[in-house]
Amino acid sequence: MEKGLLVVISGPSGTGKGTICRELLKRVDATLSISMTTRAPRPGEKEGRHYYFTDRERFEAHARAGGFFEHAEVYGERYGTPKEPALEALAKGRDVILEIDTQGAMQVREAYPEGVFIFVVPPSLAELKRRIEKRGGESPEKIALRLSKAEGEMAYREKYDYAVVNDKLARAVDDVRAIIRAEHLKVESNRRKKDAAGTVDH
Ligand code: ADP
Ligand code: 5GP
Question: What DSSP state is assigned to residue 187?
Fold first, then answer.
């Protein structure tokens, strides 16, 4: 059976990755990977739906046991992609979406180069600030930390396969759908070329 497509979506905090993924899942048949994190839930966030919320000790134990596809420290908290569910879904032919930061995405690129890597760009830094503040759930210090990292993160866009500007949400979701569709239409020999550029067997 043909393996599913691994779609990695990154971008600065507040750029709209989560919103795009939610809309995308209404339109494409794919599995969204649920990450583990040590950060506290925001109002309305549900265990097992948005994240698996945990403490540092349990997170580190899971990391030591090799349970993560990738993991990283982001804005002072730990985040990781559980390995088994993602690999199992891919093996069953399902497309899997990872919404992860740039450090995690670069780890996945090493381990799984045939994935498709999409960077979501905010229309402007002013709009990014507005979105983070509107979303709420974070202290002013945490908001400032996220904003201060945004410019540095933007430099990573060059390391991705695609950049999608999230100005109008519907347009951004359409763009991501178009990328996924195009990747499915890619001829096999081109996929293998990308695969061969990778370093790790799986
Ligand atoms: P991220 O997952 O990248 O941190 P979110 O999906 O949580 O970002 O979005 C941050 C805030 O911006 C949310 O309040 C969301 O409703 C809003 N938002 C997302 N996309 C758009 C858009 N295209 N236009 C206006 N607001 C948006
Ligand atoms: P938030 O706290 O806003 O939900 O997420 C903060 C950052 O952590 C975002 O850039 C998000 O993409 C990233 N993130 C979420 N889950 C993971 C994960 O499993 N691994 C990595 N490396 N980053 C993640």
Answer: -
Domain map of the chain by residue range?
6-199
**Closest to 4 (Cα-Cα) out of 157, 134, 115, 154:** 115
Paired with 32 in beta bridges are 97
Domain 6-199 has CATH 3.40.50.300: yes
Residue type, 140: P
- The ligand placed nearest to the CA atom of residue 136 is 1
Q: Which tokens in the block code for residue 161?
A: 């396969």
Q: Please name the residue that has the structure tokens 């899942």.
A: 25
User: Ligand 2 within 6 A of 70 CB?
Assistant: yes
Q: Is 127 exposed, middle or buried (0-12, 13-18, 19+ CB in 10 A)?
A: middle
Residue nearest (by alpha carbon) to ligand 2 atom 21: 100
List pLDDT tens digits, range 105-160. Answer: 999 999 999 999 999 999 999 999 999 998 888 888 988 888 988 988 899 999 99
Residue nearest to atom 22 of ligand 2 (CA): 104
Give pLDDT tens digits for 151-195.
888 999 999 999 999 999 999 999 999 999 999 999 866 665 665
Look at ligand 2, atom 24, and give the residue with the nearest C-alpha. 100
Mutate to test the pocket of ligand 1, among 35, 42, 131 (most ligand atoms within 8 A of CB): 131
| Distances in whole angstroms, Cα of residue 73 to Cα of each of 53, 79, 179 | 15, 6, 29
- Judge whether 150 and 128 are in contact, CB under 8 Å: yes
